[in-house]
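Submission sheet (multi-component)
Chains listed below:
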Amino acid sequence: MTGNDVIDIIFLSLKIAATAMVFSIPIAFIVAWLLARHEFAGKSLVQALITLPLVMPPVVTGYMLLVLFGRNGYLGGLFHTLGIQFAFHWTGAALAAAIMAFPLLVRPMRLSIEALDRGLEEAASTLGAKRLTRFVTITLPLVLPGVLAGAVLGFAKALGEFGATITFVSNIPGETQTLSLAIYSLLQSPSGDRTVMLMIAVSAFLAIGSVLVSEWIGRRMGKWTRQ
Amino acid sequence: MTDHAKDARMEGQGLDVAVEARLDQFALAAKFKAGPGLTALFGQSGAGKTTVLKMIAGLVRPDAGRIAVMGRVLFDAAKGIDIAPADRRVGMVFQDARLFPHMSVLRNLTYGRWAGKRSATTDIGRITQMLGIDGLLERYPRTLSGGEKQRVAIGRALLADPALLLMDEPLASLDQQRKREILPYLEEVRDEIGLPIVYVSHEVDEVARLADTLVLMADGGVLGAGNAVEMFSRLEFGPALGRHEASSLLTGTMARYLPEYGLCEIALGEGCLLYIVNERLAVGDRLRMRVKARDVALSLSMPKDVSVRNILPATIHDLALDDSPFVEILLQVSGQMLRARITRYAFDALKLGIGQPVFAMIKSVAIGQRMLSGKL
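Outcome: structure written.
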């Protein structure tokens, strides 16, 4: 495996993780908002469903995705008519990454929404700010640390996702072979490859870096948003 | 001004509140009118004061009733009127300041303008100077002291061009030192801006010093409402205003300064003089003094050889006599009301009765600087 191959794999991994985040962050925020601010029937069911990917064997999650989003799956057919294919396609890897990272996104977002002093929104309303203005000027900036911390953590998780991905979209070089899957393949081959050490290093660096950045955001922004 | 003229003025200029609500803990039914100036909602915690304030601001919705400010209806259950908080132009200063932590003091102060689209009728420089916060504009709320935060919160509310200012125990979270630091600013706001203010408090001291109108609340209802000086002189509100704190408010004019003693001579009326210690007064200044009932002693004859210099000729106007060891007495002093609390033992010994002329004695130190309010 050449250096160019390694770079391609890293870029594919980043593309998949980024795509997963772009679509899941807004959804996660809405879900976190509903869980933090509203009471509704089936709330605990929604909570359980979100936590599920965290505790279920990833291979099972991957299989369920295959059943649901495979070409003959219940939702897969629907998306296929819309021109979106998931099974054995990089978009499927993004979907698997998004599902697996979802609980990591929702939790910090929910916590920061719950921690927000609603009295500040009340104060803003007495100063003439209407609902949308209040959201943009008060709510959003104050929950932003939670959103960013969740996003960075989720991104790292998406980048390293393995079990659900390999089950759902297989390990196709150039299409679904992310960094983790490439490392797995190289470790399987008896000859071995020196590039595997490079990939492991890159993987570890990205993961550790993400956690540090997430922590830093939490600390840094927590400071200027504290009263 | 006659009472009738006063009432007529209150209709158009003041606040008209009549609200009812069933809340989690209790039922609230409050009805009162207040004129311009500062109206204090006074009562124990849990009396419903803050809830009434939030109803005026639009943050809590009453089940029934009507709220009007300066003739403008903000809420009317019968007519289905319920103006959103953002459109009420009712400024509110919360007990916990509620400054926006991610904005500088300046951004906080101008929030009503850039986010609330309120008109910039009040000059920022004037407000920040008046509140002594002109040096804090670049700072962030977390770096401010409690007293500074409250002053910024007051400035923020004022700069949002309100028609009415609500203050929910703005001093409650502060220590004595900080309270003393802020009170003069509150008096400035009351006297200089000319905005009607509704002020919630459970501190008699603050109410005595600041209030023009007093609304006494207990258990979700209004016990009584009216001119603060008159309310203080009504014996039946003694328990509500705190037995220990029972006091009266006297109004006087600084007549002359006695430099050799460091005393101010205050004229309460014709030939009726009080001596107090206050370095800031100038001749001609009008002031309100609070005298606690327990600091007033009575004598049947003009006492000659006592240290007390404040000896006021008075007439017993009313008294409250019961089984308790104390008797509450309301005295008329030069057209003003002064409360006295003496023991029943002394009362019987002096054989006091309504209409009897007496001499009221107040130690100068009992009318200390702290109890003095600003110019009327």
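Remark: Residues 3-225 of chain A form a domain with the MetI-like fold fold (CATH 1.10.3720.10).
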